[in-house]
């Protein structure tokens, strides 16, 4: 194998890196809105590094959306991908597409102490499923099964499209307000960048506050600055986030991934909201507390899993981390 390229393509950003001699390097981030296709973005990436098309033997992409067939349509992005056209354009021999949170679930098995924060104490049951969940442009969800002796199976899915799980009268009132405006309310409707702003607007309407914030970043910044309405929004956001794993599977452990929106919030407040929901089923919860932890530690972790996936697709033996 000459060189391999790995990528994590979400709704807002695509991250590419080269895999060489069992090592990840040359990580770059490309806004998806700036390019017409993944082929164009990868072509620019390779050119910037001084590589011609054809220098890459294999490509593995973690992509946001369900994977099947030749044609792939990215969730929450205008990008489209034909496996055959992709390989022809970039002169690539091998292409593997894997759901982004399937990849993330595999990568979670390689996190070390200090790369996550416990928000709900408890003892994980290795015989039960683990759920990995992360809000960003959309809501990614993955499930990991430990089949024994260091073997793991990641189950692909689109868990962000389940109904938003409501636990009390106030949450029912908020969901009804949003439903009256847009129709069906899925978990992703709230647990995403646009969803955070939508939740802020709903809380303002229900509680009689005049909305003054108009972006998700403004909501999280105001919460960090102590604004009581914005802090209530982040708290409610995290309560929903803590409850969603219950709607996915009979999990007894969960990894809450800090996506572009959630990672900007206050770790302690996020933990409080999440832990109140995990306490309902006594499952331990973990939080990846910072942008750098998520994008560097996890990038390296799930890329290692991705490259091994070439030889075992969704079932891999990770061995010692």
Strand content: 15-25%
Please describe the biggest sheet, giving its number of strands, its sense, and whether it closes into a barrel.
7 strands, mixed
Which ranges are low-confidence, i.e. pLDDT below 50, for 5 or more consecutive residues?
Answer: 258-298, 310-321
Radius of gyration: 20 Å
Overall spatial form: globular
Strand segment tally: 14
Distance between the termini: 23 Å
What structural class results from the helix and strand content? Answer: alpha/beta
The CATH class of the largest domain is identified as Alpha Beta
- The DSSP helix count reads 10
Question: How many domains comprise the coordinates?
Answer: 2
In the CATH hierarchy, the architecture of the largest domain is 3-Layer(aba) Sandwich
Query: Main sheet: which strands, in order across?
Result: 8-13-12-9-10-11-14
Output the CATH topology of the largest domain: Hexokinase, domain 1
Q: Could you state the order of secondary-structure elements as H and E?
A: EEEHEEEHEHEEEEHHHHHEHEHE
Helix content: 25-40%
Mean pLDDT: 77
Summarize the structure.
By secondary structure, the protein is α/β, with parallel strands linked by helices. It is 38% helix and 24% strand. It has two domains: 4-104, 2-Layer Sandwich (Nucleotidyltransferase, domain 5), CATH 3.30.420.40; 117-287, Hexokinase, domain 1 (3-Layer(aba) Sandwich).
């Amino acid at each position: 194998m000459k060189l391999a390229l790995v990528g994590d393509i979400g709704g807002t950003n695509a991250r590419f890196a080269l895999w060489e001699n069992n090592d990840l390097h040359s990580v770059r981030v490309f806004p998806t809105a700036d390019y017409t296709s993944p082929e164009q973005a990868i072509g620019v990436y390779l050119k910037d590094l001084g590589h011609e098309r054809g220098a890459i033997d294999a490509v593995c992409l973690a992509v946001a959306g369900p994977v099947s067939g030749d044609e792939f349509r990215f969730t929450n992005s205008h990008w489209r991908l034909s496996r055959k056209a992709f390989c022809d354009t970039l002169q690539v021999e091998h292409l593997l597409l894997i759901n982004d949170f399937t990849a993330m679930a595999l990568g979670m098995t390689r996190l070390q102490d200090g790369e996550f924060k416990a928000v709900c104490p408890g003892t994980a049951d290795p015989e039960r499923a683990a759920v990995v969940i992360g809000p960003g442009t959309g809501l990614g969800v993955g499930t990991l099964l430990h089949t024994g002796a260091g073997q793991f199976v990641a189950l692909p899915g689109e868990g962000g499209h389940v109904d938003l799980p409501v636990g009390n009268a106030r949450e029912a009132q908020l969901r009804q307000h949003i439903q009256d405006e847009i129709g069906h309310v899925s978990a992703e409707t709230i647990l995403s960048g646009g969803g955070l702003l939508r939740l802020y607007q709903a809380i303002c309407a229900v509680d009689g506050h005049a909305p003054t914030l108009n972006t998700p970043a403004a909501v999280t910044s105001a919460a960090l600055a102590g604004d009581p309405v914005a802090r209530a929004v982040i708290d409610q956001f995290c309560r929903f986030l803590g409850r969603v794993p219950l709607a996915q599977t009979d999990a007894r452990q969960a990894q809450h991934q800090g996506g572009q929106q959630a990672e900007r919030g206050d770790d302690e407040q996020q933990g409080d909201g999440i832990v109140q929901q995990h306490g309902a089923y006594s499952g331990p919860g973990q939080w990846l507390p910072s942008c750098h932890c998520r994008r560097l530690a996890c990038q390296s972790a799930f890329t290692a899993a991705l490259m091994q996936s070439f030889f075992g697709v969704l079932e891999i033996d990770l061995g010692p981390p």
